[in-house]
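User: Hey, my collaborator sent me this sequence without any context and asked if I could get a structure. I don't really work with proteins. Can you help?
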Amino acid sequence: MFIHTLRVSILLTVALVVPTTFAQTATPDVQNKPRKIKSEPDNSFKRWVVDVEPIITPEELKAWNKLQTNEEREQFISEFWHRRDTDTDTDQNEYREAYYDAQAAG
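Assistant: No problem. I've predicted the 3D structure and written it out in structure-token form, which is a compact way to encode the shape of the chain:
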């Protein structure tokens, strides 16, 4: 009986200790870790901010520089021109069209 109890105790100890002894501790895979990367604006957005430099306010430029995604930049541009629209009852933005016409004329 004593030997049977001893064998059971040894088997239980082995069953409980061995797996934890040989188990690998999970080390984080640095290459697969999600990274916080600020989305770089496309060239068109970089050109846009240069194009509107004469009329963009310092506050607007500060807000522009804080934008993280191209979707945010698109929304900003839409609101930028909407604020300057001289006639919001039309589909066209007369101010934007006049501004770009003047830019093209030189």
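In plain terms: The two ends are 104 Å apart (CA to CA). You can pass these tokens on to your collaborator as they are.
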